[in-house]
C-alpha cells in the first residue's frame, strides 16, 4: 500500500465517524428534541422517509446515529485524559522516589490492576450510577495502573537513570528532572501505547454500553443502539450494522493514524 493511499484510508476511516459525531447533532437538532418519525412502526427497513429505517421503538435511526457519536468520543477522550494524567504522574513519582515510596505506589496500583473491571461497571450499574461522568471515571481509573507501570519502566531505564543522576549533581530540583526532562524521555513509549489504549478504552466503554452496564438504554450512543436493536438484526440490519461500522471505523482509523505517525518518526520499524 502506497503512503498516499494509506493516508487517504486513514483519513476516511478516522475522519468519517468523527465528522458524524461532531457535526451530527447540529444536523439532527437538539438532543432533547423529539425524534423525527417517533410515531413510526418499530424496526422498519430503510425507506419511507427514514433513510436508515427505524429502531425497535420506532425512532428514526438516522437521527439517532447522528446524535450518538458525541458520547462515544466524549467518554473515550475523557477516560484517556484521566488515565494518562494520573498514570504519568504516579509513574514518575514511583520512578523518582526512594524504594519505600516506590513500593507503596506500585503495590497500591497492583491492587487496582487486580480488581475486575467488569465488577466495577456492574457495581455502578447496580447503584444506578449510569451518568457519563461515572463511566469516564471508571474507565479512566482502570487505565491508571498499566500506564503508571509503563511510565515507571521507561523512567527507570539505564540511560534515564544516568541522566537523572547527572542532573541531580547539577542541583536541579525533582520537579525539573521528572516533570520536564523525564517526561520527554517517556513520551515515545506513551505515544506507542496511545493507539492501542485508545482501542482498549473504546472497546471497554462500548462493551459496557452493549451489556447494559453503561449509559441508560434511552441514550443514542452507538453501542447502546447495537444492544437495543440486536434482537431485530434480521428484520432491520441497518440499526445494528451502521453504528457497529462507525465504531469499527473509529477504532481501526485511530490505530492506523498512530502507527503511521510513529513510523514517520522512526519510533517503530
TrEMBL record:
Membrane protein topology class: Multi-pass membrane protein
Protein keywords: Cell membrane, Membrane, Transmembrane, Transmembrane helix, Transport
Transmembrane residue ranges: 64-96, 108-126, 132-151, 200-218, 238-258
Domain ABC transmembrane type-1 per the UniProt entry, residue ranges: 69-258
Principal localisation: membrane
One Pfam family cited in the UniProt record for this chain: BPD_transp_1
UniProt-annotated location(s): Cell membrane
PROSITE patterns: ABC_TM1
Family: Belongs to the binding-protein-dependent transport system permease family.
Name of the protein: ABC transporter permease
Species: Actinomadura rugatobispora
